[in-house]
Each structure stands twice: as C-alpha cells, then as structure tokens.
Design brief:
This protein is of the alpha/beta class and 598 residues long. Helix 8 links the parallel strand 4 and strand 5. It contains 18 helices and 29 strands.
C-alpha cells in the first residue's frame, strides 16, 4: 500500500494501526480504493484525533461502547444516589452586606484568573459570526461581548494596581484564557488582532482551541464517514476546557508563576456576569469552597440544570453537582419527594438553577487536573433508528460538560453555590427571534438579543439607583412588542467598566443629585469621571468630570421597527435605534477622582 506527497511512511502505518486497534473495519477496507489526496487527509485527521483526545482513539471507542451500552439499557447515573438540598449562600443586592462582600471580593480579585468559554457560533441566534463578536447594545455597534469582558478585566486590573506597592505594579496583570473551537478560532483571533486585544497584553491573554471528536453510527463504535472520506466529527462539549487548561499548562502558570488562587469560568453571552463577580469571590473565600457555582432561583420544571447534593446509598459519599433538568424530576420522585420538583415557600424550587459561572480554588483544582488530566465524565444522547437500539437516526458522539468537574475531586471537597437574583447575574443571549417569541408566549425567559440588551440596561439602572440616582417613571415602564417579544422600555443606561468597578466606587462618582427621565440615554465612561449634579431628559455620553450636567432637549434615542436590509445584529432584535448620534461631554470641569475610596 503506497503513500504519496511529503507524508512519511511511518505516519501512514501509525494511522492504519490506530484504526485497526479501534476496529474501524469499513475505513480500512475502503482506504485502498481511495484517491491519494483523500488518503493523505484521512491519515492526518486520524493522527490529529488520536493526539487531541486523552488516551487516543482507542480510549474514545472504549468509553463510547460503555456509555452506549448503558444508554441502550436505560441506566441512570444517579440510581444509587439520594438527592438532598445543597448548602450555599444567598446574596441580596439590597442588603447592606452586599457592599462588604464586594470589598472582600475585591481583595481576592488580585489572585484571580479568568476563563471565557467561547466555542460557539451565533447560528442558533440567527447571527452568522462568533457570538462574542455580537454587540450587547444596538446603540453601540462596537460594544461587543468580548470588548466588554476585556474592559471589565482591565478596569479591575487598573484598580488593583493602584493599591499595589510600586515594585509590584509592572509585573501584575489579570490573566484571561479563551477557549475557542474549530468554528470560532480563526474569527476570534481576527477580532482580537483587529482590535489589538482591546488593550490586553499578549502575555496575559491565552487562547486554547477545542477539537472535535468522531461521530458514531452504532453502539459498536463505528465511525461515521463523509463522502469525501473524512471521519465525521462533532463538538465534544465545553467540558473540554478543563483538559485544555491542563494540556496547555495554563493553570500551572497561573498558580506557580503568578500566585493566583482562584479561577472564574464564564460564558460567552451573559453580560451580567461581572456585576456579581466580586461578591462571588468573597463567598468562595469565606467558605473556602473548592468549587462555587453561581445560581439563580428557578421554577420547578424550568429547563435549567439544578444544583443538588447526591449521597451514595452504599458508600454514603456525597457529591454536590449540577443535575440536568430532564433528569432532575425523576431523581427527586425516586428518593426525595413523590411529587418531584416542587416549589418551596417562596414559589421557587428548593434546588437552585445553575448558570455555568463557576469559581474554583486553584490549589485543589490543580491537584485534580494533575490526577485526572481534566477529563470530566462524558455522556451520550443517541437517537435510535429502530427498536433494536443498535443504529442511530443520525450519528452521535460523546459529550462532556464543564459543571461535571466535582466528580474529579477527592471525597471531602467543599462544593457549594451562591444564589443571586436573576436580574443581577444572568441574562443569556442564545435564542433566535422566532424561538424566543415562542418561549415568551409560554411565559418562559426569551433569552435573546433584545431581552439581553434590556436586562443589561436594567442592571445598570439598579446599581445607579443604589448610588442614589433618581429615575423618573421607571416603576411603570412600558413594554414594546418586537416580533412577538415584549421588551420593557427602560432608560438606555450603560456604565462602562472603567467608570466604576464596585458599588462603593459608583457612589463616589454620583457626587450629588441626579435625575434621569424614563426616555433618556446615558453612557458613563472614564475612571476619573465624577458628576456632582445631573438632570437628563435626552441623550448624552459623559467621559469627563462635571460640576453640573443639564440636558433637557428631549432628543431621545428610541427603538424603532426594522425597514429591511439591516445587519444581522439588528435583525435578531427586531428593532434598530432611531439615531446613533449621541452627544458627548469631553471637557473636564472638576478635579478628577482618586481610588482612595476603594
């Protein structure tokens, strides 16, 4: 069997040996019949797949056969466990302790690294590019998720540096690792290069790419093959992030080289993550949690995974972990409550909803990575072709989820949760406008671009209200219907990350009486900006300190229905802005603020 081009004979032999060991009979029989170019591509693909999966293709097939057998027999991974309500802490924004938690969390931020899980395209949204490149707000087309996230980290870094000794400032940074995929890697690199990493240095930014895994046609583990004689591959799930951090030495560098103690994982299109970040770190430190999940109140039956404590009936070992919503009710009915997932006194489930914002203590996380290589347990979800359950309607694959990591900890690890109001920490942008309208009609969160934008304005309003700002008429905010989704018409308020990091700092910027009308647009910028007095009934961007701001021209930025031909980021909302021309105050009229209040 000859080989061609520049490929060495050993590569071909190695690839064919791997396929032989994996019992991929069809591929081996078909191989000699194929063109030179197809053989070259297949050999390279086999070697790449074997390298990217821990244990290689042989291990992948072994795991697949076990999981497919269990799926065929209807095995439940929690049959031998009894669920109970987990322990955690609830954060209340209106409680005076919230600011104290922010202060305590700020002290931990110096020792924290961040991981952004960004392997998804926006196709489900009706957006053809990467999701992190989507604008958060329609009135600022360049204000994308990735730009906002990096701005948040750089603003935090700036405040931390201001408190460090002079000899430590130059070497300090807040590191960020982004996990991409085959679908998003190139576009992510291009966006970052075009925008010069949004101000981050190359040293503090790490990109790791997730590889896909072979798709399977039946329970024997046979690979699906494309007409071009390639192994069909599919995404493996965001649980790969742990393996990638280990393989690329990211955590080792952060712990041993940078003295970091915590790592925060966050998702690609939830802009509220950083509003509750500092209290989350404080709770993790307070309880010395090895893993801390941010959760929200969830209604019984809501399609959100729930945090549960599962006790093994035989060993009595406990595991606090996310249980997917489609498994939860059955698990609860079997051993917790005959009625399953029922509401508590507050109308919500006793089991809080997981939003996949996770904090790990790096000391125990690194130990678990070194022991397990970060390989979280996988699952399979085949759609069977017939009652024999041996073949599938469409090829399936093994998948994994990042929140399954507690299964890699040693017994006794402290795993808890921090519960926040949904408006404070979670607003996903994941559904296209048609699906979102359907969810809205059912009384479920629409979780689309328009609701995410509205929620982003609202959380900024709530923080300013806490700082003493008066918003006129907001309690009776009207709703506008855009493509079947009713969106509250709040003032369009954006607090840029460099304006304020904590509530305490925000209060120092609101140095007098501010009154904002319900139709106004306000964008606040600048780490040194403070405003003593403001009366706004119009639209303004302020990025320099002012004694007094008075804009009463009623030149509102309104959302209007589309006319046709608009870009995708507007089509997925169902509206556009009446104008993108927002006046800006850039003249300094007051002494700049310092960071002594932090």
């Amino acid at each position: 069997m000859g080989f061609y081009f520049s490929m060495e004979q050993t590569d071909e032999n190695k690839a064919l040996a791997i396929l032989t060991e994996a019992k991929q009979t069809f591929i081996l029989e078909e191989y000699p019949k194929r063109k030179k170019e197809e053989q070259v591509k297949l050999v390279k693909q086999v070697l790449d797949l074997n390298k990217s999966y821990p244990g290689g293709i042989k291990e992948y097939i072994k795991r697949a056969q076990i999981l497919l057998k269990d799926a065929k027999e209807g095995a439940n991974p929690y049959d031998d466990f009894t669920p109970s309500v987990p322990s955690g802490e609830t954060l209340m924004f209106d409680d005076p302790s919230y600011e104290l938690y922010e202060e305590q969390g700020f002290a931990q931020a110096q020792y924290t690294g961040f991981v952004l899980v960004a392997g998804g395209l926006g196709e489900r949204l009706g957006y053809s590019s990467i999701k992190i490149g989507l604008p958060i707000a329609s009135l600022l087309p360049d204000f994308t998720f990735i730009s906002y996230y990096i701005q948040c980290l750089l603003a935090l870094e700036e405040r931390i540096k201001a408190k460090l000794p002079e000899n430590e400032k130059a070497s300090f940074c807040v590191p960020l690792c982004i996990m991409t995929s085959d679908d998003t890697h190139k576009a992510t690199l291009e966006v970052l290069a075009k925008n010069k990493n949004y101000g981050m240095t190359a040293e503090q930014l790490t990109i790791v790419k997730q590889e896909k895994v072979p798709a399977l046609t039946g329970i024997d583990g046979t690979f699906a093959i494309t007409p071009e004689f390639e192994i069909l591959t599919k995404p493996h799930g965001h649980g790969d992030v742990h393996t990638l951090l280990h393989q690329n030495g990211v955590v080792q560098k952060w712990v041993l080289g940078m003295g970091k103690r915590w790592v925060v994982f966050f998702q690609d299109t939830n802009p509220l993550t950083f509003k509750s970040l500092l209290p989350l770190l404080a709770v993790s430190a307070k309880h010395s949690y090895d893993m801390n999940s941010v959760t929200v109140p969830r209604k019984p039956g809501e399609a959100v995974g729930a945090i549960c404590t599962m006790t093994n009936d035989k060993t009595k070992e406990q595991l606090t972990i996310n249980v997917e919503y489609n498994q939860l009710d059955g698990v609860l009915k079997a051993k917790f409550n005959k009625d399953g997932d029922v509401p508590g006194k507050d109308g919500y489930s006793l089991f809080p909803g997981n939003i996949n914002v996770l904090v790990f203590k790096l000391e125990t996380y690194l130990k678990a990575l070194e022991k397990t290589k970060g390989c979280v347990p996988e699952f399979v979800n085949p759609k069977y072709a017939d009652a024999t359950k041996t073949k599938f309607k469409t090829p399936t694959r093994l998948e994994c989820m990042m929140q399954e990591f507690p299964k890699l900890f040693e017994q006794g690890a402290k795993v808890g949760f921090t519960r926040c109001d949904r408006w404070l920490c979670f607003s996903a942008c994941k559904n296209n406008i048609v699906d979102a309208a359907g969810k809205f009609k059912q009384g479920l969160p629409a979780e689309c671009a328009s609701t995410c934008e509205s929620d982003f304005f609202y959380v900024n309003i709530r923080f300013l209200q806490k700082a003493g700002v008066i918003f006129e008429g907001i309690e009776t905010a009207e709703q506008e219907d855009f493509s079947g989704i009713k969106v509250p018409v709040f003032p369009r308020v954006i607090i840029m990350p460099n304006f304020a990091v904590t509530l305490k700092e925000l209060k120092s910027k609101v140095a007098g009486k501010w009154v904002i009308s319900k139709n106004s647009t306000l964008i606040l910028e600048g780490s040194s900006t403070i405003i003593k007095e403001m009366k706004l009934d119009g639209a303004i961007i302020i990025n320099k300190s002012q004694e007094k701001v008075e804009i009463l021209d009623k030149k509102y930025i309104k959302f209007v229905k589309l006319e046709g031909g608009e870009p995708e980021y507007l089509k997925i909302r169902g509206y556009k802005c009446s104008s993108l021309e927002i006046p800006k105050i850039i003249q300094l009229n007051i002494t700049p603020v310092s960071y002594t209040h932090l």
